[in-house]
Structure formats: structure tokens, C-alpha cells
Amino acid sequence: MSKLWNLSTQPEPFWLLEAMLCMNYVHVLDSEEWLNKSGSWSQRKKEEFLAPYRSFREEMRAKLQPILKQFPMVAGHVDPNPRKHDRESLRGYDSPIISFLVQMQNVLEAPERPTEEALEKGVNYAFGQMLGNDLQKSCQDRKIVIGSMEDVIEALEGWDGEDGDKFKILRLYLERREIMEQLWNLQEPCREIGRGCLTLVGERFDACMEKCGDQKEVNVLMRGVGVRLEEDCIIKITPMIMRYDGIMIQADESVGAESVSMNIHLGIETFYLLASKSDDLYNDDRLLAQLKALGDLTRLKILHLLVERPCYLQEMAKELELTPATVLHHLGILMEQELIEIMVTKEKKKIYYQLREQGLQEISRGIMQLALSRQERKEQQEKQIWEGQEKQGGWQWTIQK
After folding, report:
1. Is the pLDDT of residue 37 over 70?
2. Are the beta carbons of 56 and 21 closer than 8 angstroms?
3. Is pLDDT at 256 greater than 70 in this prediction?
4. Is residue 21 within 8 Å of 243, Cβ to Cβ?
5. pLDDT at residue 347 above 70?
């Protein structure tokens, strides 16, 4: 396979982010919902799968709690309550401090601190991305430029997040210099604690890192989660533990005339869960969710539009005479059910959406399964699993006891 893009993998997680994911009750065990619906996962297997992550989170929390007392401003952004999780929305989900850390990773991990001027520019850019980038769950139809608190207040007027998060974003911006200073000082304790707890998920982390070093595997994964990458993309992968099932993508479309840069935060189980999802192709709950995604006139119009050509967000909003927020809401549902995918190319310099024909074919096969007897269906499922293992060269994951 020819090399289509430049790939680099971080040797370990971004420990500040892992620490805040452990301390904040975000929906970090999101796969529990999918595992409950998966016909191929028994309760015992699910519990064995989740045990190391629960242990990792509790040990990190126990060690971090006394240390955070030394950093009161950062501790003030810890949310002790579970956050609402709307499965039909891309917005209002992450705690502001989580989004901020994702945006500021390169600055915080740089070997030298930036100048005051460069830091202010970087923080303002981060807030613009948090409030105005459609890959970061925003509903904006224009690029957000932040230069002052007034700009943040104005941007929040059109931001589709919870009121409590709006207040946190304002406080985060107001305290940005002090917060950054505390985050820099917190890095080493978080790194030390994280490395000490890594043994709890060490086998799984090593398996993920091995696959991340194989560009073919990464390409298959990207396509599997609905991302098509073309040549001259620069990709940096950071492994994630607490978002073990997730994938967060940042695209910087202004790196240069010849390239597009992407930062990917990749859950260490993403390879495995994608394979398990393929094995469980004919699960009734999954088919029902896919049919529900199709049971909306606006989403059908989006699919009809994408049959004709790939489109970007504002283009679809104009064509359908809807707000970008409404279109993005429906795109999120179609993405979750793997009916569309995003495409990143250096030529177009935009994030484009396109139809994922494989997703529609899977729905078609799932509907056809309804006409089969229980025995015939079982035989089809076994055949699907066997074909999936053959395609992957026989690779299977052994759950860590």
C-alpha cells in the first residue's frame, strides 16, 4: 500500500486530559450503552471488558484529589455530577475544560513555554475553535474570531450549549492566564500518576499502539468510523484511555497551501470495538437505530443531496433552506449510524460530507435477515464473523482478566 499521508503517534496519552476525564463525570464509559445492546456480548464478558477502565479511573481519582487542592482554579472546573448525554446531538456534551485541553495540547506539551503574546493568541484561537468549529460540536455558520471577553460573550449568544457550560466558558476565559499556569505545573504530577496507573490497561494500550504504527490499520479504522483521508494530510494520533471507545478529530485547514493537519485523539479500544461491531452486524437494536435515523424527512433529503455530490455544512444548509445548527444536528445522527462520512482533502480545504454506501447496504442486509429463520440467521452471523476475521488476517483480541 502506498503512503498517502504522514503519520505520527504520541508514545503515551496526554496525561492532563486523562486526569480531567477521570475527575469530571463526563460520559466516559459510553460503550456500556452499545455493549448492553450487542447480541454478541454476554454480561460477564462486558464486565470483564470494563473492569480495568473502572479500576484505572478510580485509582487516578484517588491519587489526583489531594493534589488538585494545590491548584484551586483548575479544581474549580471539575464537575462532580454526571453530564446529560443526548444521543441525537453533537453539542453541549464535553465539559469546557476538556475541550480547552484538547485545543491546547500542543502548547502545553511544547518543550518551551510561548511568549505572553503567543500564548494569548493561542488561547484566543482555542476558544474560537471551541465555539465555532463544526467538528467540535458547534452550531455556527461562520468562523469565530476571539480577541476579548466581549467576543466570547457574543459567540455564546449563538452557541447551543447548556447555561452552566456558558458560565464555565466565561470563567475559563476570564481566568485563562492563571489556569494555564496551573495546568503547566500540574502536568508532571498527572504524568507520574498516569504512568503508574497505566499498568491496569497496559496490555490493551500496547495492542492499540502496535496497530497505530501500521498505516494500513489506521486507514481501515478511519474509513470504519467515517473519515476518508487523501494525500498530503499530516496526522498526529494521541492514544486515549478514559475515552477508550472514542475518537476526537481536529482539522486545521490553514496549515499551508500543500497540506491539511489533523490531530486525532484515539481510544485504545477503537480498533477492537470496530471489529466487534462488524461481527454483530445483524443485531436488532442496531438495525432499529439505523431505521430510526432514516425515519426523518430532513435526513432523507440530506442523503439524496449527498448521492449527487459531497457537500460541506453551509452548502447543505443553503440548499435545504435550514440553519447550519439544524443540519449539523441531523448530520450527527447520520454519522453515528455510519450512513455518511467526512472527507478531508488538501484541494478543497473544507470538511466535506459524503454518502457512505456501505452503511446503506448493511441496513439492506439487516432487513433481509428479518425473512430468515433463527437457524438461518445464526448461520449468517457466523459467516459474517468468519469473513471479518479472514479480512483481518485472523486477528482477535483476548480480554484481559
Report:
1. no
2. no
3. no
4. yes
5. no
